[in-house]
Design goal:
The chain is an alpha+beta fold. The protein is built from eight helices and 20 strands. The strands form four sheets. The protein has a six-stranded mixed β-sheet, with helices on both faces. Helix 2 crosses helix 3 and helix 2 runs parallel beside helix 4. The protein starts with a strand and ends in a 7-residue tail after the last strand. The structure holds adenosine-5'-diphosphate and magnesium ion (MG).
Length: about 350
C-alpha cells in the first residue's frame, strides 16, 4: 500500500488550464473523495494519477516513487470507471481474471484468485454469467473485482455508482466502505455527489474550476466551510447564504442585519470591517427553529414533508429566500407567517472575498 503526494500538479489542454496547481497529501490507507461540480477537473486529476493523462507540470509521487513518467500498469494503481467497461463476450470469471491471464498467471492460480475476489464481493454464484445477464449493480461489482484482483496499492474510482438507481447506490456505498476497511488499501473516489463524499470519505477534497477549495474530514467541511463555495456545496438542504450589512463592530462582536434578518450579533474577533460593509451570513436550514422572537420572519411559500423533518421555504422579501428544516410533525400552512430563531455560535460570516471570517 502507498500514500500519494501531489505537488503543484497542473494540466493544460492546449492553452486552457484545467488543473491549476494542486498540492495534496494522501495518507497510506486513506479513503479520499474528490468532489465538485461537473467539469471542475475531477476525472482529469484522477486520470493523471492513473497515468492515463500526461501531467503538464508538477510532481506526482505514489509511495516513495515519482510517477510522472511511469507507465499506468507500473504505478500499482487500478481504476474503476462509471461505464464498467466489461468485455461482453467473456464470463464474469474471465472478465475478473483477464488481467492475470495477460500477465501469464497459470490457469489454476487464476481460478483460485478469481474465487477469492468473488467471495469478497459476494458474487460467487455469478461467475459463469456474461455481463448482459447481470444487473447494473452486479456489473459494477465485476468491474470492482477486476481492480481488486490486481492487488493494487491504490484504487481509483471515477463516479462508479452514477449509473445505479438510488437504493442500489446506498447499498454499494456501504459495500465500498466495508471493502475499504477489509482491504485497508488507499482509495481515491471521484464523485459530483456530496452525499457520497460525506458518507464514505476519511478526507474530502473539494474542487472547483481545477483548484482545491478545501481539504478536510466530512464534519470539518460541514461545520467549518472555508468559503462560500464549500458552504453551498456540502450539505443538503443547502446552507442559507444571505447578504447582510454590518451595523456595528466592536473587539469581539459584530452585528449584522438584512431585510430578512433582524439585527443579529455574532461573537467573533474580526478585523478590518467597518459599519456599512456587506458580508454573507450563513446558517444551515436545520439550525433554524420556530421562535416568536427569532430574527428571521417571512411568509411560507413551500412546504416539503420529508417525514423526519419538514423543509419550509420562507419568503424573506428583499432578503431572498430562506429554507428551514424543522420538526417533521410541525403544523404549518402555506402563506402562514413564521419567525425563526438561530444559535449565533453556529452561524457563519463570509467576507467580500468569499472566505469565512
Ligand atoms: P469532471 O470529471 O470534474 O466533470 P473533467 O476532468 O472531465 O471534469 O474535465 C475538466 C475540464 O477539462 C472540463 O472543462 C473539460 O471540458 C476539459 N477537458 C477534459 N478533457 C479534455 C480534453 N481531452 N481536451 C480538452 N479539454 C478537456
Ligand atoms: Mg468526470
Amino acid at each position: 500500500m502507498a500514500g500519494l503526494q501531489l505537488s503543484n500538479v497542473r494540466k493544460n489542454y492546449g492553452k486552457v488550464e484545467v488543473i491549476k496547481g494542486i498540492d495534496l497529501a494522501i495518507e497510506h490507507g486513506e479513503f479520499v473523495v474528490f468532489v465538485g461540480p461537473s467539469g471542475c477537473g475531477k476525472s482529469t486529476l484522477l486520470r493523471m494519477i492513473a497515468g492515463l493523462e500526461e501531467i503538464t507540470d508538477g510532481e506526482l509521487f505514489i509511495g516513495k516513487r515519482k510517477c510522472n513518467e511511469v507507465a499506468p500498469r507500473d504505478r500499482g494503481v487500478a481504476m474503476v470507471f462509471q461505464s464498467y467497461a466489461l468485455y461482453p463476450h467473456m464470463t464474469v470469471e474471465e472478465n475478473v481474471g483477464f488481467g492475470l491471464r495477460l500477465s501469464g498467471v497459470p490457469k489454476a492460480e487464476r481460478a483460485k484468485r478469481v474465487r477469492e475476489v468473488a467471495k469478497i464481493l459476494q458474487m460467487e454464484e455469478l461467475l459463469e454469467r456474461k455481463p448482459s445477464q447481470l444487473s447494473g449493480g452486479q456489473r459494477q461489482r465485476v468491474a470492482i473485482g477486476r481492480a481488486i484482483i490486481r492487488q493494487p496499492e491504490v484504487f481509483l474510482f471515477d463516479e462508479p455508482l452514477s449509473n445505479l438507481d438510488a437504493a442500489l447506490r446506498v447499498d454499494m456505498r456501504m459495500e465500498l466502505s466495508k471493502l475499504h476497511t477489509d482491504l485497508g488499501a488507499t482509495m481515491i473516489y471521484v464523485t459530483h455527489d456530496q452525499v457520497e463524499a460525506m458518507t464514505m470519505a476519511d478526507k474530502i477534497v473539494v474542487l472547483n474550476f481545477g483548484e482545491v477549495q478545501q481539504v478536510g474530514t466530512p464534519m470539518e467541511l460541514y461545520n467549518f466551510p472555508a468559503n462560500l463555495f464549500v458552504a453551498g456545496f456540502i450539505g443538503a438542504p443547502k446552507m442559507n447564504l444571505l447578504p447582510v450589512t454590518v451595523d456595528a463592530v466592536s473587539g469581539d462582536a459584530i452585528t449584522v442585519s438584512a431585510p430578512s434578518l433582524k439585527s443579529t450579533t455574532l461573537h467573533r474577533s474580526v478585523s478590518g470591517l467597518t459599519m456599512g460593509d456587506t458580508l454573507t451570513f450563513g446558517i444551515r436550514p436545520h439550525l433554524l427553529v420556530p421562535d416568536a422572537d427569532g430574527p428571521i420572519t417571512g411568509k411560507i411559500r413551500l412546504i416539503e414533508r420529508l417525514g423526519d423533518s419538514t423543509v419550509v421555504e420562507v419568503d424573506g422579501g428583499a432578503g431572498g429566500t430562506i429554507f428551514a428544516a424543522i420538526d417533521g410533525d410541525i403544523e404549518v400552512q402555506l402563506e402562514q407567517f413564521v419567525s425563526l430563531g438561530l444559535d449565533e455560535t453556529r452561524a457563519h460570516l463570509f467576507g467580500p472575498d468569499g472566505n469565512r471570517l
